[in-house]
Amino acid sequence: MNLFKNLQKNSNDKDMKIDTEKFCVYAPMEGVMIELADFPDDVFAQGILGKGVGILPAVGEVRAPFDGIVYNIFDTLHAISLISNDGLEIIIHVGVDTVELKGKGFIKRTQNGAHVKAGELLMEFNIKQIEKAGYKAATAVCVTNSDEYREFNFEEYGHVYVGQKIFHVDK
Questions:
Q1: Which phi and psi angles does 144 have, rounded to 5°?
Q2: Where does the PTS EIIA type-1 domain start and stop, copy by copy (predicted)?
């Protein structure tokens, strides 16, 4: 199985092209995908913000998980919300309690209202700086409008790469 079959580098190193399918979410970062129930923060582990997955990041980059619009970049830069062209509403929350860092170790690479393509760089973060400050860099990827979908189909947990399908939903 070629994990990179749907990835194509653009001339710009910061972005890549990902061939997408409707109602699919692609890995926004490289790392180890875990079940949300195993996420080290109860708010996410209990599914309070919606269904999804956790990713233990190997690289400090957040990339668009689908084609859509940047709905909100939190002032503290630790989280970003997006809406796919299909209506999926996603929050990507980098770290556990990293709101306390007040943006230190995070760099935004997009803006609210931006139209983005899957694989486009949205944010960078310094994993070592987050961990040195005493926080975990574990990242939650949750569908905040989960109740609008009847079924979630998760791919195999384990190591994932940017652009690899991590789950899809059925209306």
A1: -75, -15
A2: 41-145
